[in-house]
Design a protein that fits this description.
transcription regulation, 8 helices, 10% strand, single chain, DNA-binding MarR family transcriptional regulator, DNA binding, mainly alpha, HTH-type_Bedaq_tolerance, Arc Repressor Mutant, subunit A, DNA-binding
Amino acid sequence: MDDARAVERLTRSIEDFNSVFIRLPASDRLTFSALSVLHTLSRAGPCRLKDLVRTEQIKQPALTSAVAKLERDGLVERGPDPSDGRASMLSLTAEGQSIVSRRHADRAERLGGLIDRLEPADRTRLLSIADVLDQIVQLADEQGGTPDERSGK
């Protein structure tokens, strides 16, 4: 199989896996957008709304609405932006961080149960690719911007 076809197959496999993976935890009845905001704030730390617009790939009005609901629910809070007194920084509350941590633990447990059903050699191969996936994420971060921004769409 040539590289282009292998990348196409890998892309399809990742898309299919993501469809399964994002649905693993059944707890916390929040939208995917809201959960993505919580996850981003957990990983990146406090940031401005305009920074979230770039990472979340949804329009600012929809994101503003999602963040307002997360604030009302006590999962996100606004604080002053130390570099710009007119702006505010969004960050997770303890309850918001608890949801992210609980979802991660739920996913790890459920994914572990699926991985345990694999043949030992496949389990070992799968578990060994985390470093490679981390490298891809780092390369994407270094490239900067969302996929749409990078392609000019």
